[in-house]
Amino acid sequence: MTTNREAAREFEDSLGLDGCLIGVKYTNEPDPRADRDRKLAACEAIGLVRGEHAVINLSAETCNCMGGKYCLGLAPVPKEQIIKEMVDVHKMFASEQLARKFLDDVPPPSGRGDFVVVAPLSDMAGEPDLVLSVCNTRQANKIVSLLVYSGHQLSTHNLVSSTCTSLASPLVTGEAHMNFITDHGRNRVPSFANYELIIAMPFSKFKEALANIPHAGAVTKP
After folding, report:
1. Are 100 and 4 in contact (CB under 8 A)?
2. Which pTM was predicted?
3. SS3 sequence, the chain?
4. Mode of pairing for the β-strands spanning 177-179 and 56-58
5. Do 85 and 161 contact (CB within 8 A), yes or no?
6. For residue 93, which phi and psi values (nearest 5 degrees)?
7. Can you give the residue ranges of every domain in the chain?
8. Which residues have CB under 8 Å from 33's CB, separation 6+?
9. What angle do helix axes 137-149 and 203-212 make, rounded to 10 degrees?
10. Per-residue pLDDT tens over the stretch 44-84
11. In this predicted model, what pLDDT tens digit does every residue of 160-181 receive, in sequence order?
12. Distance separating alpha carbons of residues 161 and 183, to the nearest angstrom
C-alpha cells in the first residue's frame, strides 16, 4: 500500500509543485511533535507548514483568529459576531442578510475533534481528512484536471472567503475546494505569492487524483 510519503512525492514531482502537500486531520489528541503553546491563525499554520515543514496543532486555545475558530468548528463563536466582522470589517457583503446566507450554505464542521493537526502530508501517520496545495494557476489546473478526469466536480463555494475555509469547506461539501486567498490572509502570511491559490481536497478525492496521474492528459507527457 502506498504510504503518505510516497503519495506526496509522486504528486509533488508529477505536478512540479513548489511546496509540500499539506495534510489536515481532526483529532481529539494533539500531535506531540508540535509546540502546544504556539498560537496561530489557520492561514499562518498553512504558511508555516509549507515554508518550514512544521507540525501545527490548532485548537480553541491555540487558534488566535476568531474566524478560524468559527470556520473550523473549534469553538462556539456566535454567528452574529462573524457576520458583523464580514460586513463591517472585511466588507465582503453589502448586508448582513447576504453574509448570513453565505455562512448558512456551508456550516462549520462539528464534532470531529478538539484539535486540527496541520502538517506536511509526507510526515502524517494514517489518513488525513484533507490534502491541500498552495500552488500557482498552472499547477492548480493540473490538480483540477486530475479530479475532473474521473468525474469529480470542483466546488466553487467560498471563492472569496477567508483562507481558513479551505481547511473546513471540503469536509462539509465532500468536494474539492478552490480558495483565492484574501488580502487579509496574504497580509498575515507574506509568503503567499500574489499568483498563488489553494486547492483543498478530501483525502478520498486526493487518492482519485493520484490514481489518475498516469492517465490524465494535463499531467502525462505526449
Report:
1. no
2. 0.93
3. CCCHHHHHHHHHHHHCCCCCCEEEEEECCCCCCCCCCCCECHHHHHHHHHHHCCCEEECCCCECCHHHHHHCCCCCCCHHHHHHHHHHHCCCCCCHHHHHHHHHHCCCCCCCCCEEEEEEHHHCCCCCCEEEEEEEHHHHHHHHHHHHHCCCCCECCCCCCCHHHHHCHHHHHCCCEEECCCHHHHHHCCCCCCCEEEEEEEHHHHHHHHHHCCCCCCCCCC
4. unpaired
5. no
6. -135, 155
7. 4-212
8. 55, 119
9. 90
10. 999 999 999 999 999 999 999 999 999 999 999 999 999 99
11. 678 888 888 899 889 899 999 9
12. 10
Cell of 33: 511533535
CB 161 within 8 A of CB 101: no
Neighbours of 155 (CB within 10 A): 18
